[in-house]
Every structure is written in C-alpha cells, then in structure tokens.
Write a structure and sequence with these properties.
binds NADP nicotinamide-adenine-dinucleotide phosphate, about 260 residues, two-stranded parallel sheet
Length: about 260
Amino acid sequence: MSKTNKSSKSQNLVSNILHTLRPNSKASSKSSKASTSPTNTPTMATTSLAGKVAIVTGSSRSIGAAIAKALGAAGANVVVNYVSNGAGAANEVVSAIKTAGPGDAIAAQADAGTVAGGKSLVDAAVAKWGRLDIIVLNAGIMGSKVIADVDEEFFDSHMQTNVKAPLFTVKHALQHLKEGGRIIFFSSSLTYATGPVDTPLFRTGKPQQVIDFISKQNPNGRLGLPEDIAPTVAFVASPAAQWLNGQNIRVNGGFTV
Ligand SMILES: NC(=O)c1ccc[n+]([C@@H]2O[C@H](COP(=O)([O-])OP(=O)(O)OC[C@H]3O[C@@H](n4cnc5c(N)ncnc54)[C@H](OP(=O)(O)O)[C@@H]3O)[C@@H](O)[C@H]2O)c1
C-alpha cells in the first residue's frame, strides 16, 4: 500500500469515528435548526462520570489499574481487563473500585491484543450495563531492540497488539459509543504519551543504573507513577473535556517539553 493511500485511509477512519461520535457535525447536521445536543449547550460541563460505562484494557495492575480506579472514583462503571496473571489482581482492583464508590466494576479476562479479545470486552460492558461510553486502550507491549535485532515476529507482535487489535476493538465499539463517547489510545509517542512510568513493563530488562539515569532525566528527579497518569485520563474522559479532541497529551512530569 502506498504512503498516500495509507494516510487517506487513516484519515477516513478518523473522520468516520468522529462522525459517529459527533453525529451533529458537518454532513449529518442537515437541519438548519440550532442543535440542542450537550456538546452545544453553553453550561459548565462536569468532571463527573456518573452513569458512564468504561473499558480499560490491561487494568489488573500498573497504569491501567490506576486509571480504572480513577474512572470508578469519578462515577463510571468499569470493565477491569486482565489477560494472564489470574483473576486475583483484577478482582482486587474491582473490589477497590466498589469499596471506594461511587462507580461499579467487573473483571473480564480477554487478550486485548487480539481482535476477538477486544470485541469480547465491548460485549461484556454492554451485557452488564447496556451501554458503552469510554474505551481506554491501555494494554500494550513495548519491546526494546536495536534495529539490527528486529525481526518480523517482533514487528508483527507489536503491530498486532498496539495497532490492529485496538483499531478493531474501536470499530466494534462504534455501534455503542454515542455522542460524548471517548476513545483514549496509549503509546510512548502518540495520543496519550506517558514517558517513563515505574511499572514492570518499564523495569523489565533494564539494569538499575539505566533506571537511575532515566529517572534523573526528569526535572522531578523520579520516574512517573501510575497515579500520576490516571487523574488526567479521568478528566479527558469526562464531559468537562468535551471540546478536547485528537490531542497528543504528554503526561510525563516534564521528561520532554
Ligand atoms: N511504563 C512505562 O514507562 C510506559 C511508557 C510509555 C508508554 N507506556 C504504555 O502504557 C501502557 C501500560 O503500561 P504499564 O507500564 O502499566 O504495563 P504493565 O506494567 O506491563 O501492566 C500491563 C497490564 O496490562 C495487562 N495486559 C498486558 N497485555 C495484555 C493483553 N494483551 N490483554 C489484556 N491485558 C493485558 C496486564 O495483565 P496481566 O497481569 O494479566 O498480564 C497488566 O494488567 C502500555 O500501553 C505501555 O506501552 C508505558
């Protein structure tokens, strides 16, 4: 596929997603009558997520767990997703959300790095609460190899987990995401860019010396923590951020400016 083709296809995809989430915009707003949708209502929007339903992929620990708890604390009902480490950690996150309130939560096992796994999470949310408002595509892999060592298997696994599965999960979710819906992607360089965060994913394979060096690159003199990331995701998911779209948000404590 040519670069231009790829780029126009992804532009079409983005515009289709936006069209679905903002049905009152552009071509779909045939009527000249002013819209009375919440998007156009000039009242101060809330940061509450009361009544909203959210999926956070990869949320049994680390950044995803902190996000799931932050969304629950803001009032959302949350699907807490895990893949391999048994239901224990995910159930702890679910209990923490239910105990703290006001949101509710369920645990769901699925490989969010597969198309079928992503779809099953959407179906679980809708089966439990009858709607879906927010998807945080947090599950991802971040292998580290110099280009000379990168093989097709390494490349394909990253594309499958970080690009293909999230995209088809969103495609399946579009039928449920209505106006005001939120799709929040995660990465180290695009969309929701966290910078180094102290989790197993970050620490694995790095000598302490390297971790210390990276920590000192931050003006705060430390790595980020999952709790540094989560509140901003809850904000972006809330009605108060309704005018925020298509941003690459760097939540990294000044690691890069
Ligand atoms: N940490 C950093 O420095 C950093 C920097 C930039 C970007 N990020 C991005 O932030 C996101 C979260 O990173 P993290 O550091 O919190 O990761 P982590 O410590 O490795 O935690 C991963 C979480 O995701 C779950 N998970 C992993 N693969 C999954 C899959 N295929 N399907 C469903 N759940 C899955 C794990 O569940 P199990 O326990 O069941 O395996 C666990 O709950 C990733 O997308 C990562 O690329 C992280």
